[in-house]
Backbone:
């Protein structure tokens, strides 16, 4: 019986699997790059809906418009965008307005492709030493990535939501750092995610997946950097607290309607409930040794309780399914990602009934949460002897990494 090629069976050969000729680019990444370019040109025909908020916010932050600086959020509570996002938006300010917007679109699209690389490498590291078949992993990333890209282009190009883009990008970096056992980096990246977009608080249960000896240090980095970014606005202008009470219309297609919430705008309890539900579900996932589900569960909590139904919200869901399908399970076909794309994006495009759209959103969120939390999960072969761990069993410490991490990455 012919043995499958794995990273452990053929030392050093995994670095060559999937490469195009002698180049470092792998075939599945090349295909995903072409897929990204195709969707980029489709989305470019539509105006970058929200880029003007980023431009205006960075101008206010740097006193180019009156009423800004540390009074930014007190005077403009509608700018529900973190200061880090305004700082990054400032990188495109020196260019003419139209060129700066196009460059920002390209930059955000490129981040999505890089995130696919990061998730693939995180999966390869997570399963190192378990007989992982790298070719199958690359195929899995390709199939899940094909579902992820349309929603990523939706948030990065059509809506140009740099804040959401950065929150998801930094969260992906935190996942990569978690797998590599770098506790400080996990804390820093999660803080940057929250400093880019406040709803990223739902991803903080990733801290619980760290070993206990370094968890507190990582959390201290997160709390400290979040405080550095936000406290100056609150301490100098107490009216900044009003930004947390900013409301948006409760749209007819919102899943909130199925809970009997028919308020015209955001209920007072809604935002705290979103964050609390996301954190609680994420903490439960870590407790059940299923930390790759944290991002998906936080995204589920967001879409099921949010009064708005913008399609760019689905980018966080598709990142969550990508991480789960690549790291949380080992099936070749990542059906959760495609189910998310078809049910959430497909319903928005092809189902005219607002009520039906809300029901589909609710059903997906509840069903996917139940699946990743409750479905029987079989750990890889080398982990079946013990109870299992959210981190790789042979990771020595977040203070350093084993020599095997210095080997070439395979995905």
Residues:
């Amino acid at each position: 019986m012919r043995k499958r090629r794995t990273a452990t069976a053929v030392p050093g050969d995994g670095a060559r699997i999937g490469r195009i000729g002698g180049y470092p680019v792998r075939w599945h990444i090349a295909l995903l790059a072409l897929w990204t370019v195709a969707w980029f040109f489709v989305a470019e025909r539509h105006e970058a809906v929200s880029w003007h908020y980023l431009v205006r916010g960075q101008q206010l932050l740097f006193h180019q418009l009156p009423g800004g600086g540390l009074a930014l959020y007190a005077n403009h509570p509608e700018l529900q965008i973190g200061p880090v996002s305004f700082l990054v938006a400032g990188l495109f300010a020196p260019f003419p307005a139209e060129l700066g917007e196009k460059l920002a679109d390209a930059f955000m699209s490129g981040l999505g492709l890089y995130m696919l690389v990061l998730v693939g490498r995180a999966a390869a590291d997570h399963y190192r030493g378990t007989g992982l078949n790298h070719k199958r992993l690359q195929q899995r990333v390709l199939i899940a990535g094909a579902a992820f890209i349309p929603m990523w282009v939706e948030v990065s190009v059509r809506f140009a939501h740099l804040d959401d883009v950065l929150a998801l990008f930094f969260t992906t970096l935190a996942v990569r750092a978690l797998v590599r056992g770098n506790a400080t980096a996990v804390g820093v990246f999660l803080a940057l995610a929250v400093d880019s977009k406040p709803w990223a608080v739902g991803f903080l249960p990733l801290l619980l997946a760290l070993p206990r000896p370094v968890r507190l240090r990582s959390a201290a980095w997160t709390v400290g950097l979040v405080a550095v970014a936000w406290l100056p606005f609150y301490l100098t202008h107490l009216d900044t607290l009003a930004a947390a009470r900013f409301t948006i219309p409760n749209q007819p297609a919102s899943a909130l309607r199925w809970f009997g919430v028919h308020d015209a705008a955001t209920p007072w309890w809604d935002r705290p409930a979103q964050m609390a539900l996301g954190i609680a579900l994420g903490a439960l996932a870590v407790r059940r040794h299923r930390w790759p589900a944290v991002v998906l569960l936080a995204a589920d909590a967001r879409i099921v309780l949010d009064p708005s139904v913008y399609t760019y919200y689905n980018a966080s869901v598709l990142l969550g399914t990508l991480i789960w399908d690549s790291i949380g399970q080992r099936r070749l076909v990542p059906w959760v990602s495609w189910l998310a794309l078809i049910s959430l994006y497909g319903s928005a495009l092809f189902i005219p009934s607002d009520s039906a759209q809300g029901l589909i959103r609710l059903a997906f969120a509840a069903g996917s949460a139940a699946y990743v939390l409750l479905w029987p999960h079989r750990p890889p072969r080398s982990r079946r002897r013990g109870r299992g761990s959210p981190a790789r069993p042979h990771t020595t410490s977040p203070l350093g990494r084993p020599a095997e991490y210095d080997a070439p990455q395979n995905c």
Q: What stands out?
A: Residues 1-14, 384-410 have pLDDT under 50 and may be disordered.
